[in-house]
Amino acid sequence: YGKRNNAGYGRLEGYVVSLLTLVDICEVTAGQSAPQDTSAFGKEGTPFIRAGSLERLIKGHHEDSFEKISDDKSEYYRLRLFPRNTIIFAKSGMSAKLGRVHRLRVPTYVVSHLAAIIPGTKVDPRYLQRWFEKNPPSRLIPNESYPSTRISEISKLTINLPPLPEQKRIAEILDKSDGIRRKREEALQLADSFLRATFLDMFGDPVTNPKEWERKGLNDVGILRRGKSKHRPRNAPDLLGGPYPLIQTGDIANSHHFVTQYKQTYSELGLKQSMLWPKKTLCITIAANIGDTAILTFDACFPDSIVGFIPNGSVKTEYIHMWLTFYQNIIREKAPESAQKNINLKILSGLKIPIPPISRQKKFVYCFKQVELLKVKMRDKEKDLEDCFNSLTQRAFRGEL
Length: 401
What we know:
This protein is an alpha+beta fold. 37% of the residues lie in helices and 20% in strands. It has twelve helices and 21 strands. The radius of gyration is 25 Å and the shape is globular.
């Protein structure tokens, strides 16, 4: 690494960087199978983290907000309690492909699908977390069609390890930079909170309807129809690769109100067995991520796991979209128990929506669009911050800070 002298962080000259395998400095293991008895879980006890919880943890949710298991049940099932600062990430499934990592803030039980890296005394936990973010474990996956990594392979990872004081210094710099980036994310969340508060102020609680607006069914105020994807298998090569955008449930879930991009397209054959929905269509997911909504910004196809809604003159798309975001939990509760929860067109058609005057809806749409313009500018700044943070991380692990 050579010499370094940064004002405010002391002086280290010619320090030695050790090349070590992960198993030399950490305990590399995995969680355990979750108890099948649902009564083992409740609101009191120690958090139990599943693979599906990882994304929410990374977005800032605290471990204490997840399901918990009592001490007597954890002892009965012989679960291992992982200490604070354990690094966890998915070692199998779709989450493993994302390569996301989280450092536990409190002692926690962890499911077997998650790898658990317990730092030893030679490594700073914050430094190790940042190292994994720069060197995601997803690179170990041999076959992306069946994403999986082995603990034995994770153990063999090699890491350049500077002295502990230098690790702490690097971690502190990256934490400060990441804090600035997270402030921008919080500002975006505040913008969404403002929009929801504005909706409540203008229209009242959409569930209890305190302003006593007339209620109508979704199919009474517009066209409500499922998407189409008749051909099986749905991913047949002849169907794909053409000029027609193809939207999936995941695109809706990650859209931030508007669908602005797509990952797949249909060919002429694909379009023939589907249908093309016009831009401004409201997309509603009825399988996988039930009740997610977003508005198309371009003409697109989508399968029957998504319902399209085109309003008539009595409602505005943005109003219906926001109303459904408040109603999402109720929609999910209506989904029948099955191997994979889903809802149908009948359930959506039966929803009764308060219909305020169109003039008031238009005022909300104006506010909605102004907030979205502000968020676009904020996301541009967010991308700049993301690029700066990535550049800083690269420099940190090259020894250039």
